[in-house]
Amino acid sequence: MGTNLILRLALVALQAFLWGSIPPSYLLGKYVYHVDPREVGSGATGATNTARAMGPAAGIITAVIDVFKGWIALYFAQHYLVPAQVYGQTAMQWALGIALFAVIAGHAYSPWLQFRGGKGVAVAGGAALALWAPLFFVELGIVVVIALLSGFVGLGSVIAALALPLLIGLFATTRHIPLIVSGALAGLFVVWLHRENIRRLLKGEENKLTLGRRSSIQERERDE
Length: 224
What we know:
- By secondary structure, the protein is mainly α.
- It has one domain (about 5-205).
- It has eleven helices and no strands.
- α4 runs antiparallel to α6 and α4 packs across α7 (about 120-130).
- The radius of gyration is 17 Å and the shape is globular.
- The protein starts with a helix and ends in a 21-residue tail after the last helix.
């Protein structure tokens, strides 16, 4: 592996982290809704807590922007930083894997929010969209179906995260070792970010999603 490729992979990680760190939930709350999502519900800045704090419209806007963050991070990695035409398919696939993990990390630990953030589900979905569009829709279907059946968005998110490397390995388009490995690491990372959800689910203490502008800091459900 040459020095040039190492530097480019480092740039892949940096740009993905910076894309992930953009906090649409916080910006919506500060400039439109005058609510700090970090002081409502779980304190997370993902789409679920945004919907809880500011209503479904804000949640949808946040989700769309978060998906875009995941997509653009991998798009830049594939087409500009480590294109397969120059560095080969394997190097490009590792670049995509690095971008996948880094964009989730930037979302979860945004330097603009004192290294707080969301739990990476929508961002990971955007990365899946960049890998292969049908993968995104399968993952989205898992989250939606489980959330509708159970009432717990966090449960759907955890199951979708665990399914990510399995689905990457299932489809021929994405069935490449670098993508499977990075998908497994990213999926486990998202599960770890949901560790409090899992603990409360096991204890039967997890609250179901409710929407609207509310300031119940005591409500401790922690979704993405």
